Amino acid sequence: MTFCEQAWQRNLPLFNATVALPFNQALANGSLARDAFQHYMIQDAHYLVAFGRALAIAGGKADDAEGVVQFSQAAQEAVVTERLLHDSFMRAYDVTPEIFQRTPLSPACHHYCHFLQSTAWSRPYAVALAALLPCFWIYAEVGVELQKRSVPGNPYQGWIDTYGGEEFHAHVRAVRETVDAVAAQADAKTVAEMHQAYTDAARLEWMFWDSAYHMAVWPC
């Protein structure tokens, strides 16, 4: 199996637990509380800036021109394109720029942002890519699962369709192909580190959605 196939199988129980989270179940049936979705959007918008930074760092470490371009463009899309999407949802859900600016990162968001950025800075290119992969791939597959479960008239359908749609999935497939190609050239120690980075990031994906459902904040 390729690295991605192995990583998916190793972490399948974690993915299933992520889909089963109350946040995602409520998102699918349209019952998610409006303020929980607002909290999620704010945290996700904060996260995208850190994700973009980590992508840009990874692009700078790429060992070929294609990788530099791929992840530099992905960084731009994370910061510009997806933030534009967030802005439209924030307007629809009454999240003003002032509310966004004064809302700090939640503990889970803070942890995830620093994990990605520190991994991108301090670890080899292959390990950085493995840490970034779950945000692409798990979001896409959660989107597919939520599309299957979504109810007619779901107020969150537009959000679900963005990540379950073919355009996003084509982007994810391209990232997976690059990760597999890089892993195929890596030694056993690096591949083991890639698997650990993937699992750590997948756990943080779970924590991010769980935190959003509970609208978690710092205890003091």
Automatic annotation (TrEMBL):
Pathway assigned to this chain's UniProt record: Cofactor biosynthesis; thiamine diphosphate biosynthesis
GO molecular function terms noted in the UniProt entry: thiaminase activity
Assigned keywords, A-Z: Hydrolase, Thiamine biosynthesis
Domain spans labelled Thiaminase-2/PQQC: 22-214
EC number: 3.5.99.2
InterPro entries for the chain: Haem_Oase-like_multi-hlx (IPR016084), TenA_E (IPR026285), Thiaminase-2/PQQC (IPR004305), Thiaminase_II (IPR027574), Thiamine_Salvage_TenA (IPR050967)
CDD domains per UniProt: TenA_C-like
Catalytic activity: thiamine + H2O = 5-(2-hydroxyethyl)-4-methylthiazole + 4-amino-5-hydroxymethyl-2-methylpyrimidine + H(+); 4-amino-5-aminomethyl-2-methylpyrimidine + H2O = 4-amino-5-hydroxymethyl-2-methylpyrimidine + NH4(+)
Protein family per UniProt: Belongs to the TenA family.
Role: Catalyzes an amino-pyrimidine hydrolysis reaction at the C5' of the pyrimidine moiety of thiamine compounds, a reaction that is part of a thiamine salvage pathway. Thus, catalyzes the conversion of 4-amino-5-aminomethyl-2-methylpyrimidine to 4-amino-5-hydroxymethyl-2-methylpyrimidine (HMP).
Protein name: Aminopyrimidine aminohydrolase
Organism: Comamonas jiangduensis
Gene name as annotated: tenA
